[in-house]
Amino acid sequence: MGEMTDIILTSIDERGVATVTLNRPDKHNAFNEAVIAHLTETFAMIEADPRARVMVLTGKGQSFSAGGDLNWMRKFVDYTVDENIADARKLAGMLDVLYRLKLPTIACVNGPAYGGGVGLVACCDIAIADESALFALTEVKLGLTPATISPYVVRAMGERQARRYFLTAERFDAYAAQAIGLVHEVVPDAEEMATMRDMFIDAILKNGPGAVAAAKDLVFAVSGEAIDESLQQETARRIAERRTSAEGQEGLAAFFEKRKPDWVAPKGGNGDV
């Protein structure tokens, strides 16, 4: 997988680690129609690639993403309501593709993330932030709201924190983002970011790929649901499905035979532990 466009860089290594890099450093990796369209296509392409096992999302330069590009946002003023809805639906669609990606996703937040940039972080399964990262939901400063990103951001930071940061538009640092659950880990520099990223990647690659995808879907299935008979039945069905799957059978057999399962040591030994 090579470069799809110069504004979005994509690569995949021999382990199946796909990396997507926002590449508009002079614009602080801000969104416009082209970025949104290319990200949507890139995420779908990676999900469809049988080699891909995990996806990393990051930004080139000093920023992760500053949110909406000013030239793109100027167009909103002259759009009709219907045109604005159509435009916003494209951003909503891109975020949903990222949020529901079957692969595990890791955001490496290399610098400031504002507005829609916070949305990208919230859509990923795991988020690591550099100490230099700053976050803000600045939409109300412009008389707008973070509507499109809100389902993901509220799920990531919780309603109580969203009620603060949506209303104040204040900036908060990486440690505050960690305290409210928006990011999982904070690192001091790019070198430690790479170390932490690789630690998560190595952990994921030791696990059954199908089980990882099923475990991610499991979170969606049970989140917010009443713990009742129907949910118990659904979770029982899901584990029975995994136990009887070829991957589940291999994982259990490998455990009892004290050997590595076949997904840990693919050809070439790249998955060796």
SSE arrangement, N to C: EEHEHHEEHEEHHEHEHHHH
- What's the helical proportion of residues? 40-55%
Category from helices, strands and their pairing:
alpha/beta
Number of strands: 9
What's the level 1 CATH class of the largest domain? Alpha Beta
CATH topology of the largest domain: 2-enoyl-CoA Hydratase, Chain A, domain 1
Helical segment count:
11
Keywords:
disordered C terminus; 11 helices; alpha/beta; 6-stranded mixed β-sheet; 273 residues; 3-stranded mixed β-sheet; 2-enoyl-CoA Hydratase, Chain A, domain 1
Would you kindly provide a brief summary of this structure?
This protein is of the alpha/beta class. The protein is built from 11 helices and 9 strands.
Can you give a write-up of this model?
By secondary structure, the chain is α/β, with parallel strands linked by helices. The chain folds into 2 domains: about 10-205, 2-enoyl-CoA Hydratase, Chain A, domain 1 (Alpha-Beta Complex), CATH 3.90.226; about 210-255, no CATH class. Helices cover about 50% and strands about 15% of the residues. The chain contains 11 helices and 9 strands. The chain has helices at about 35-50, 70-80, 80-100, 115-125, 150-155, 160-170, 175-180, 190-205, 210-220, 230-245, 245-255, and strands at about 10, 15-20, 55-60, 105-110, 115, 125-130, 135, 170-175, 185. It has a 6-stranded mixed beta sheet, sandwiched between helices. The radius of gyration is 20 Å and the shape is globular.
